[in-house]
Amino acid sequence: MIFSTPLQGFAQDLAAYRIFHSTGRPADFSRLVEEVQQADVVFFGELHGNPIAHRLQLALARALHAKNPQLQLAMEMFEADNQLVLDEYLQGLIPEKHLLSEAKVWPGYPTDYKPLLDFAREQGLPVIASNIPRRYANLVYRQGLEALDSLSAEARRWIAPLPIVVDLQLPGYQAMLHSMGGHGNPASSENLVKAQAIKDATMAHFILQHLEKGKILHLNGAYHSKNREGIVWYLLQQQPELRIATITTLEQQGVKKLEKANRNTADFILVVQEKVQ
Predict the structure, then answer these.
(1) How much is the mean pLDDT over the chain?
(2) C-alpha–C-alpha distance, residues 29 and 93, integer Å
């Protein structure tokens, strides 16, 4: 049932969403599971707050775990310096109220991420808090990558090893720069992109630290893995032989056909109905 109807409670006639292969050929959830389970790392790029993406993430976690008992979850939504409190919650050592008060939990946690943590807790799955502490990403935005050199050895435990290379010519980072339209200080614009890159590099770092323990399903905003850039780019710089599968989520005015501009953005593309303003 997981494989055929992962979104019970949503429109079963696929009016709200469809899944496509990268080329635009229609796919279904069972095919997606069959293909991505061959990968070492599976990225599910979400649109934050989209309920369809979140339900599919949970369904995919269940399906992959059924085939890979050593599955690990990893999440952009938890920062690396919260790993201890996250582990304590998953092990049943502390109640949820302490997780909520002591970890930097995202606003959508109750509906978007709690079901995944509940599943991980029930099954004894590790959850990797992969993101950089936001204060350090903000430091890069304000002062540039060089500011990270002033951090203590303890602080550096929670970020990718320095020095960190940022290729501002990557299409995704270029698109971010162009989206700013040349407004403001060019250095500030570049620092904003570098702050995104330090997130990507750090998430890649913590994925690599845990890979030997088993397959990883990583949940992140679609931007961080779309077009096999972002986190994927950093992973492949260090281990080009890694088997990586990507899923991305995007909105269209209609979901019956994948628009040409959206093809080849991931191995599988979840298209959801664009919100009407």
Answers:
(1) 93
(2) 35
CB atoms within 10 A of CB 98: 13
Burial of 12 (0-12, 13-18, 19+ CB in 10 A): exposed
2 three-state secondary structure: coil
The candidate with the shortest Cα–Cα distance to 59, out of 18, 108, 4, 12, is 4
Q: Cα–Cα distance between 83 and 103 in angstroms, integer?
A: 9
Distance of CA 140 to the CA centre of its chain: 21
What stretch of H or E contains 127?
Answer: strand 127-131
Give the list of residues 6+ apart from residue 163 with CB closer than 8 angstroms, or none.
145
Q: Quote the CA–CA distance of 137 and 148 in Å, as a whole number.
A: 9
CA distance 217 to 229: 17
What is the Cα 34 distance to its own chain's centre?
20
Q: How far apart are CA 73 and CA 147, in angstroms?
A: 31
Q: Residue 232 class from Cβ within 10 Å (0-12 exposed, 13-18 middle, 19+ buried)?
A: buried
Residues 6+ apart with CB under 8 A from 86: 78, 99, 103, 127, 129
Type of residue found at 134 = R
Global model pTM greater than 0.90 = yes
- The predicted-structure confidence for 132-184, as pLDDT tens digits, reads as follows 999 999 999 999 999 999 999 999 999 999 999 999 999 999 999 988 765 55
Q: Which residues pair with 202 in a beta bridge?
A: none
Residues paired with residue 269 on neighbouring β-strands, in sequence order? 20, 248
Q: What residues does 131 pair with on adjacent strands?
A: 79
Residue 216 β-bridge partners: 41, 72
